[in-house]
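Re: folding output
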Amino acid sequence: MTGLAWVITTLSLLTALALVVDIVRDRQPGNVSFAGLVLVEAALVVQLVWGIVRVLGDHEGVSVVTYVGYLIGALVMIPVGFVWSASEKSRSGTAVLLVAVLVVPFLCLRLHDIWATHV
């Protein structure tokens, strides 16, 4: 995985830890959780731009549609989870946000696997 993917994974896991603390304390996500979500989303925007630049270059053997689809999917995962969790003011709303944050590292890994088909 690239350095950016490791940064995204680390930020996602730290944010997930903050969300677990919020779930255990039975409260809605606090400032630490929101700061983590913003950092993860900002890193995902950087990943989207960088990924599109990579696809514009040499990408023989890479399915461009699949690659860009995963880039966009990773980018919208946090906002979708946030909107869903905002409509539920209980632990389950925070848990939905936790799941969205935990899916992001797997999408980054899948992006790496797709790009690894590059010849």
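--- second protein (sequence, then structure) ---
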Amino acid sequence: MTASRNPDFGILLVLADQEFVRELRASMAAQGFDEQGRSDGFVFRTLGATPMTISALAERLGISKQGAGQIIDDMERRGYVVRKPDPTDGRARLLHLSERGEAALSTARKFHQSYERRLRKTHGDAAIDAVRNVLAAMVGEDRTTDPHFRALMY
């Protein structure tokens, strides 16, 4: 039996993700957002949808409260996140994107859109629609329709 001449599918997915992230980081850096952390994009998208507590963010991201606290402390230090009192619970503090955080999210979203437009121009709408359908099927309908994940996708 001979080995397939096609590259391993899983490795292609990982390498494609790495290339996308590399280009995203380069684009963000060129626009003044050069100190991006690994989790920043998820936090930007999540808080961009709605302010929330660190506990809620930790649950949404599937990490510990301590881990979320470390990420938020770092993002706050870099000027992307601010903490404000929760108007419905005087003991709680809600996380909000700062103006810089909103600008970074907008910049990242524009990159995502231009990246897809470039792929469509190179490979055609049908090919990109097919890739999008395969990726959505791989993720699963339960995750693409889950309100927690929908905030990340739009």
